[in-house]
Design goal:
CATH topology: Zincin-like
Largest sheet: 3 strands, mixed
Strand content: 5-15%
Oligomer: single chain
Helix content: 25-40%
Structural class: alpha+beta
Length: 152
């Protein structure tokens, strides 16, 4: 377990785990690195359905997203999948844009500080959650996938 206030002093290690460091909170780049590592661990049940995926880490959702999602606060959302949901894709439709997962740094760090979970695990969970919704999986399906049991 971490000692002291990890919220302002954590930095990713090459192992993907977060270590303590007195200089700074994890940056946008730190979360991008954790997301890229987490993407390599996404279960095959999800990966096999993914086209090339862009992961963007931003401080908060933009105002348009906040309004569309009817958020009370920008801290109410950790991530968002933008793209055409797999059940609605057609082979004859032109691909308008890349599928993207947005991770929101400040809300993720806030959740991390409150939960005490490993930051790499939080980022991985958000990725699985957003990708799973895009593929039409329920929350229960995604829990099974995260635990290694596959989609039901």
């Amino acid at each position: 377990m971490y000692e002291g206030s990890k919220c302002a002093v954590a930095t990713p290690r090459s192992s993907g785990k977060i270590g303590l460091m007195a200089e700074r909170a994890p940056s946008l780049g730190d979360l991008e690195a954790l997301a890229e590592r987490a993407l390599t661990t996404i279960p095959r049940a999800l990966k096999r359905h993914l086209a090339p995926l862009v992961i963007r880490v931003e401080e908060f959702p933009d105002e348009e997203t906040e309004a569309a999602m009817e958020l009370e606060s920008p801290f109410d959302i950790l991530g968002l999948y933008r793209g055409v949901a797999l059940p609605h894709k057609s082979l004859t439709d032109p691909r308008a844009q890349m599928d993207m997962v947005f991770l929101y740094r400040r809300p993720i760090l806030d959740y991390w500080c409150e939960s005490g979970e490993d930051l790499g695990d939080v980022v991985r969970h958000v990725l699985i959650h957003e990708i799973g919704h895009h593929l039409g999986f329920s929350d229960e399906d995604m829990e099974r996938i995260e635990e290694g049991g596959g989609a039901g």
